[in-house]
Every structure is written in C-alpha cells, then in structure tokens.
Design goal:
A 7-stranded parallel β-sheet has the order 8-7-6-9-10-11-12, sandwiched between helices. It has a 6-stranded mixed β-sheet with strand order 14-13-15-16-17-18, covered by helices on one side. The chain has a 5-stranded parallel β-sheet with strand order 2-1-3-4-5. The protein is an alpha/beta fold and 528 residues long. The protein has 3 domains: 110 residues, 3-Layer(aba) Sandwich (Rossmann fold); 178 residues, 3-Layer(aba) Sandwich (Rossmann fold); 210 residues, 60s Ribosomal Protein L30, Chain: A. The two termini are 48 Å apart. It contains 17 helices and 22 strands. 34% of the residues lie in helices and 24% in strands.
Length: 528
C-alpha cells in the first residue's frame, strides 16, 4: 500500500515493525499542536497514546486522514466528534491490557491479604516483627466483583482457582453467562453485605462516582478489604480513610486515585493502605499487545477493511440522514420508554421493521445498533457506542435479532422493539407519520396514539371504575398537571394500560403511592 502513517507517541517496536512491512512509517514524538497541524496533511493514519492531543484543528488539517488509532483504551485525548464529521475512523485497543490489569488486581489482593509491602518495608528497616504482619487467607473467602466485563471475568477465573467464593454485580450481564464461570450474580447492596474482599472494575461515570462512600461502607462486613485498579473517583477517599481508622475496613489496595499523583490523599497516611502509581496496564506484554492491536487495525482500514474496536459512530450517507432522522428519533424514545418498563435481566432484543422505511436495506443495521446502544447505555456501566453495541451485547449473552417485513396493521410503516428478560417480555410499537409526527401506537398489545416525549406516567391496572381517578388525585396533590392521557385495553374489565403526559417531573413518593392503590399492578415515571 502506498500510504503513510505517523506515530506521534512512543509505541512498542513490535507494532511499528508490523506497520513497516506494508506502509511508510514516521515516528515523531513530542510534537506540539502547531507541529501536528503543519505535517498531518501528508499522512493517511495517525497512531497515538495518551500524550498527543488530537484536536479538531489537527483533524481538520489532516486532509488525507482515514484512521486515528489509540494504543490503549481511553480516547479522551482525541476529538472523536470532529473525526466522525470528517468520516475518519477512530479505534482503540481495549483488550490488549486486560491480562495486565487482571494480574495487577490479583497481586494487589494477595499483597493486601498478607501485608507484603508493609512487611518488606519493615525488614528493609532492619526489623523482624513477624506477629505485626499476620495476614488472612483468601481460601474460602467471598470475593465481590463490581463490574463483570473482560477484566472482572478474568479476575473471577483466577480467584476461583484459589478456592474463593465469587459473587458479582453487573446490571447487564446474563445470569447464564456468569454461571458458566461458577459466579453468582447479585445486586450491589447484597454484594457489599457479603463480600470479604471487594474489587472494582467499572468506568468512572455519574452512576459510579463515589460508589464506595460512607453509607455503603457502613453496610459492609467488618474487616472488609477493598481493591481498586479501575478508575479513581469510584471511591470517596475521605470516607474510605474514616472507615479504615474506625476499623470497619481492614485495608485497601489502590492503583488509581481521584487526583493523580495522590500526594494530598488522606489514605497515604495509613499503613493499612497499599498503593501503586497507576500500574494496571504497565507490563511489557501489555504495551506490545496494544501496539500490535492498533497497528493491525490501521492496516485493515487503509486496505479497505474494518477496525475491530471502532469508538466513533459509523457514518451514514448524507443523502440518507434527513430521511432516517425521524425513525432514529422515534426508536431512541421507544427504547428509553421500554427499558424503564422492563424488569429483570435482559437476555434478548428483537427489532422488526415493516412497511415503508427509506433506504431500509442500508439503514436497518444503523437503526438497530443505535437502538441497542440506547438500551444498553441506560444501565450498563461501560462506554457503549454505535459500533461496539453488538459486541457488548454478545459478551453479556444478550441475543440481538432483526427482522424485515411483516404486517403493518394499516400503518405506512411499523417498528416493533421487544425485550426479553428473565421475568418476561415487553413490546413497544411505533410509526413515523411525518417528519414532525412520530407516535407509539402500542405497548404490550394495548393500542394508543402516544407522543413519546416529555414527562410520562405509565400504569398497568385493572379496568375498573375509580382506578384512574385515584392515580390522578395523587398527582393533583403533588401539584402535577396532566397534559394528556392515553388509555388502552384489550377486553373490558381486565388489565389495561394508562399513559399520562404531565408537565413536570413526578416525585418518587407520588409514584410509590400510585403503586399502592387498589387495582394498580405497576406504575412508572419516565422522562424522555
């Protein structure tokens, strides 16, 4: 191939050698933004680690760029939106350091159990105080794994070999997939209550920030030990400090911190805390793996193929974007509504397209992935994008099906989304009437004409006089104004469904009160 690749951060030689077999490679590190802007126009691909800031200005100057690769997992230093607008593929190498992070976690857990760093420091200080460093065995202890992705599963395999009991929390992992590894899936409060050791393997997002805090620590076992080799900020370091001082927490092993370097962290003053300087991915093998992984993806894209770990959205032809936009908007709203109503662990997603949908042959793959992404990202504590949504679902044992054709029931087009969980199945149907009018036309077989936007109160209830009135009275007492109402039923006197459009968010206590009313089977508040 007659292509040129720029490597602007240090990259393992094995990756560069793979590139040089097929393309021209220049390695130029420590470039400023101005330096990059001045030269990037000559290159077809750019490979970086965390040092290079690939800004929108750099991307605009890269008139020949087709691929930007990050040798590692994080892509915070790359303006992926700017790359997407230019049709440039951005990919990372998230799997290359999985074993490095796994083994570091296990090393930290064992070091924490046996006080190895403290004992090492003591001997080097010419002390011989064996009783001071009496540890605990991990044998037959319960390990709680928060986040059961690639690294969590690898940790579980190794802990099982050490005869530990494994429980895990992941809001989106199929129980069957975990049971194959002999792991019990449970909820977070139960994990905190039962675990002797807790190891964290989630990204830092709004839902996971300070997941370990004073309140959750209070629910844990006396003498619990906590390991974090994932992301700083998942632990409230002040609360962990207080928990250790109080004796509730026996110790912690930390590779990551909210602020790095953590020289002002109160945890550094405690002997019960083991620390390392963000070494989770720092092995020779991991650096080689990510370099090889990103190099191979670059060559694949430059030869007209795909990248395995694309992190930006796939482009759709500009002439299709306007026609597909109302379908995309409707399916996103349908997915959010359906996910709120579904209970249990998701095991299957089925999407059916019927009737007149523009560019269906090209668009269904895009629309399906977008819908899967919307469903997963609501409760999954991992980054999900349009490209990796299918892979993320498959890793968690969630089957994704797509069907084209079928009865439109008199509509010009009809889109059906069904979710299967271990507690049943929920289905929603919608239709695009025009660019400005999209409607949900049925939920679980109950027909309606619902504008799925704004604040919604949904109930499944017995079709009897007074049931809807009591719910409305509760909302009135909470000063919630009802703007519109849809009611659907299949047979008189049996179960029916009600959807209320309301003008403001409904307090949780009002929804709880509605759920207690006679005749109400279930109720939800959804904001779309």
């Amino acid at each position: 191939m007659n292509h040129r690749v720029l490597v602007s951060d240090p990259l393992a030689g094995e990756g560069i050698e793979i590139l040089r077999r097929e393309v021209a490679v220049d390695v130029r590190t420590d470039l400023t933004e101005d330096d990059l802007v001045g030269i990037i126009g000559d290159y077809d691909a750019l490979l970086v680690r965390s040092g290079t800031q690939v800004t929108a200005r750099v991307i605009e100057a890269g008139t020949k760029l087709r691929f930007i690769g990050r040798a590692g997992a994080g892509v915070d230093n790359i303006d992926t939106d700017a790359a997407t607008r230019r049709g440039i593929i951005v990919a990372n190498a998230p799997a290359g350091n999985t074993l490095a992070a796994t083994e570091h976690t296990c090393a930290m857990m064992l070091s924490l159990a046996r006080n190895i760093p403290q004992a090492n420091a003591s001997v080097r200080s010419r002390e011989w105080k064996r009783s001071r460093f009496t540890g605990v065995e991990v044998n037959e202890k319960t390990l709680g794994i928060v986040g059961f992705g690639r690294i969590g599963r690898e940790v579980a395999q190794r802990a099982t070999a050490m005869n530990m009991r494994i429980i895990a929390y992941d809001p989106f992992i199929a129980k069957e997939r975990a049971e194959e590894l002999g792991v019990e899936i449970t909820d977070l409060p139960d994990l905190f209550r039962r675990a002797d050791f807790i190891t964290l393997h989630t990204p830092l997002i709004r839902e996971t920030r300070h997941m370990i805090n004073a309140e959750t620590i209070a629910t844990m076992k006396e003498g619990v030990r906590i390991i974090n080799c994932a992301r700083g900020g998942i632990i409230d370091e002040g609360a962990l400090h207080d928990g250790i001082v109080a004796g509730k927490v026996a110790g912690a092993a930390l590779d990551v911190f909210e602020d790095e370097p953590p020289f002002d962290s109160p945890l550094l003053s405690l002997e019960q805390v083991i620390v390392t300087p963000h070494l989770g991915a720092s092995t020779v093998e991991a650096q080689v793996n990510v370099a090889i992984e990103v190099a191979r993806q670059a060559l694949s894209v430059l030869s007209g193929g795909d990248a395995k770990y694309v992190v930006n959205a796939p482009m759709i032809p500009p002439d299709q974007a306007d026609a597909l936009e109302p379908f995309s908007a409707l399916m996103g709203r349908m997915a959010r509504l359906l996910m709120e109503m579904s209970d249990g662990r998701l095991s299957g997603i089925q999407i059916t397209y019927a009737g007149e949908i523009p560019h269906l042959e090209q668009a269904s793959r895009y629309l399906t992935r977008q819908t899967v992404k919307t469903l997963l990202e609501q409760i999954l504590h991992l980054p999900v994008n349009l490209v990796n949504a299918g892979l993320v679902a498959a890793e968690r044992g969630i089957a994704v099906g797509e069907t084209v054709g079928g009865d439109t029931r008199g509509f010009r087009n009809l889109i059906t989304i069904s979710l299967k969980t271990d507690r049943g199945e929920e289905t929603i149907e919608g239709s695009v009437f025009s660019r400005t009018r999209q409607r949900v036309v049925a939920i679980d077989g109950y027909t309606m004409d619902l504008d799925p936007t704004g604040h919604l109160v949904i109930s499944k209830h017995l079709d009897r006089p007074g049931v809807i009135g009591r719910a409305s009275t509760t909302l009135g007492r909470a000063e919630i104004n009802i703007a519109g109402m849809q009611v659907g039923r299949i047979r008189q006197g049996e179960e029916a469904i009600m959807v209320l459009n309301v003008d403001s968010p409904v307090p949780p206590e009002a929804i709880e009160e509605i759920r207690t009313h006679p005749g109400i089977h279930a109720a939800w508040f959804v904001s779309i």
